[in-house]
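Table 4 source record.
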Amino acid sequence: MFSCFAIPIFGLNTPRMKQLLVFASLMSLVLTHVSCKEKEDTSPEHKVSTPIKEVLVCTDKLPYAVIELFTSQGCSSCPGADNLVNSISASDTTNTLYIANHVDYWNGPLPGPCGLTAWVDPYSDAFYTQRQRGLVSKFGSSTLVTPWLQISTQYATFPGQAERKISFTSSDITTRRDELLSRPASSGLVLRLDTLNQTNHEVRIEFATLDADTSFDLELILLENNITTEITAGENCNKTLKGDHIARSWTSIPVTKHGFATLSLPENAVPENCQVAGFIKDPKNLQVYAATKGFNLLSK
């Protein structure tokens, strides 16, 4: 049995009725605001070693850019590109996701200052080589080169397509980036840390998407910053290389409005230097539709 009440339609200009209408309007605004307000989740299953402020509540459509650099510690021409992209990202406050993918095809013996020696890039993986192969084919080629840069699969440093080519200069990279950031986004993506299990080397992520086609893929990446490596072989022998936003693990899952996913945390990764980021792409044409820098694993 339901009970209800009716408000008379007459007397709308009375002081009492005006108060009721103002109160109803304010309540509507409050409820709308609360739906996007940060709140702390203190449930036991969400306990982590440091307080996490990033709490998933609502999703916005934010303009974005995704800058991927395919590189290798075994490639003599790569450190300059690494440093250039790192210098741009260091002062970038926009919603631009930077990813350094280390390929594995330079891991064999190569001539260098230490003779014909092999340096196996500890951050390389065949997965990133295969990812580059798929992106390069989008630009009509099968040749893999490093350093190779691309922005949201719209522009690349690969030769042969001048109108879509990026030159390795700070101004050209930021110009292409800013052009993409000026476009309205058609989808939205929000990520937050659910649990961090350092014993099992796992990161569980909660995500929400907005207006993203369910035929699309959600790409989630664990990135590590502040990496320094002393190179003792290969083309870069005797150099000290520094790297940021290096991809350490990657997973791809079908898009849903809300869900959870797990990324591996490498044993040698420093959690304080790691972040989780992601983007949404169409697997058919590889076009990117949303992206976010995500969150830091731990507060420093």
